[in-house]
Amino acid sequence: MQQFRYRLATVDDVAVITDIYNEAVMAGGSTADTVPVTYEARRRWIESHVDPYAVFVFETIAGDGEAEEVGFGAISVFYDRPGYDGVCDLAYYVTARWQRRGVGRFALRTLLNECRARAMRKACAIIFSDNTASNALVESFGFEPFGEMPEAAYDSRGVLHDMSYWCLDLTPLDAKGAVEGIARR
User: Which of 87, 126, 128, 174 has its CA 20 to 30 A from that of 143?
Assistant: First the structure.
């Protein structure tokens, strides 16, 4: 069984994160960026993730103990107004040669554990509707669909995709039905 681990990304990870992301951009079908992003743009993106938001690098461990970066994921701002604090957007990308080998499942489990540790209330995922693997994965973790936007975004191949919107409630109600002093309906 393959062993994975993760760590908080730093600016030292700009190249590996950019390369993995641009691989996904060029393959199409998983991001609305239509051309590769620059290392500088990805550096700014990493730096924009200030606690409680974060970017993580996912690694596999070889028999000799050496780590290989196989993907990355992020807990990002969902909407930048204060009333949405605690609601986050999740994203993860796995390098092509490591897809369908458990990295995505590890990535999503890790991101959700980090969300809970960072007191997030809700996690959202926005996924191309025809990306059946990612949609099935979030659904397997209990995410529920809350909408679909037809013909919303193009990918690098010029394909126009519908977008599916998923949400997972991360905050169990306390005995009074309130969370952090906010009354629940």
Answer: 174
DSSP code per residue over 15-30: HHHHHHHHHHHHH-SS
Tokens of 180: 């952090």
Please tell me the pTM assigned to this model: 0.90
Residue 172 banded pLDDT, cuts 50, 70, 90? low
Is a pLDDT exceeding 80 seen at residue 5?
yes
CA pair distance 152, 40, nearest whole angstrom:
27
52: left (phi over 0), alpha (psi -120 to 50) or beta: alpha
CA pair distance 41, 43, nearest whole angstrom: 5
4-183 folds as Aminopeptidase (3.40.630)
Tokens of 176: 């009074």
From the list 119, 101, 122, the residue with the least C-alpha distance to 166 is 122
Instruction: Report angle CA 16, 26, 75 to the nearest 5 degrees.
Output: 50
